[in-house]
Amino acid sequence: MIHSKRGLSHATIEHPFGDVRTAVEQTKKNKKKATAKPARRAAAKKNGARTRAVVPQSPGLPVILNLNAPSPNTVFGLAAFEYIERIQTVCEPAPIQDAFVAAISALGITNFALLEITPDPDTFGRGVIGDTMPDGWKQRYFEQRYAETDPCVIEIMTNPEPFLWSEALGKSSADKLQRRIFHEATEFCLNEGMCIPIYGPRRYMAFATLAGMHLDLTPASRAAFHVMALYTHNRLMKLAQAGQCPLPGLTRREANCLQWVAQGKTDWEIGEILNISERTAHWYIESAKRKLGVATRVQAVVRAVVSGLIAI
């Protein structure tokens, strides 16, 4: 039964379990809440309280969002632009690489590499622009010529957008060798990675690969990494082409190989002396040539000696 008295609804509701209750009190409570809400909002605004919005994700489970607090994506995006602005005034590659690693480490990335893509697999490893990858992984990757079958390198040729290592593996046939590449990377704590293709004039191609044990990436952080990698690549290339940077240091292996080159040893002989493969010895020598900015082995030895990087 429903009665009306002085504009106030009075309902008698039969509960499914047989109880009977009146809805008058509930109606009064609803009116009080409706009147109190605008007053509370006005008071909160006057006192400078933070505005909140309720975005229902599923029935009964609302999510409270603080509209005045920047999201993690916004914070990281601002940090990315600050990084880009900062590296424009740096004229040495090492601080740029250090800054890049520091900036991207917030989301689980521990290592990176910037490489030029060359048509000849034998010269693939010579186009390293900058990297912090583990030496053991680099040696194995180039020595085993993994670039020829790496699903990520194959994906870069056709996909201009950034992608995860696992996404590239999922698109490929994933044969035994390809799965082995990814499995061996985990031995160096490189469980997942993100590749960023880079294109330039005259069919120039390069890419950045960012890796770590666990990557916590959102679409926004992917976009930020994309921009940061492009600017890092462009800055390092500009410095290298302008010759503004001092000579980078050689690794111990690179210096040892150049010292034996100065003694007239071949790649095979150097490999036997240092207990490494002939191909690995060749890779270290080519890496030293690239760092020294020379075309021949003789030039590399001369420049390294003059610069005090090796002694003979």
Could you provide a short overview of the structure?
With 312 residues, the chain is α+β, with helices and mostly antiparallel strands. It has helices at 24-46, 72-87, 93-104, 135-143, 151-156, 165-171, 176-186, 219-242, 252-262, 267-274, 278-292, 297-306; strands spanning 2-5, 8-14, 20-22, 52-56, 62-66, 111-116, 128-131, 163-164, 192-199, 205-212.
What does this structure look like?
With 312 residues, the protein is an alpha+beta fold. It folds into three domains: 1-41, no CATH class; 72-242, Transcription factor LuxR-like, autoinducer-binding domain (Beta-Lactamase, 2-Layer Sandwich), CATH 3.30.450.80; 252-306, Winged helix-like DNA-binding domain superfamily/Winged helix DNA-binding domain (Arc Repressor Mutant, subunit A, Orthogonal Bundle). It has twelve helices and ten strands. It has helices spanning 24-46, 72-87, 93-104, 135-143, 151-156, 165-171, 176-186, 219-242, 252-262, 267-274, 278-292, 297-306, and strands at residues 2-5, 8-14, 20-22, 52-56, 62-66, 111-116, 128-131, 163-164, 192-199, 205-212. Strands 7-6-10-9-8 form a five-stranded antiparallel sheet. Strand 1 and strand 2 form a beta hairpin. Helix 9 (252-262) packs across helix 11, helix 9 (252-262) packs across helix 12 and helix 10 (267-274) crosses helix 11 (278-292). The radius of gyration is 31 Å and the shape is globular. 25% of the residues are buried.
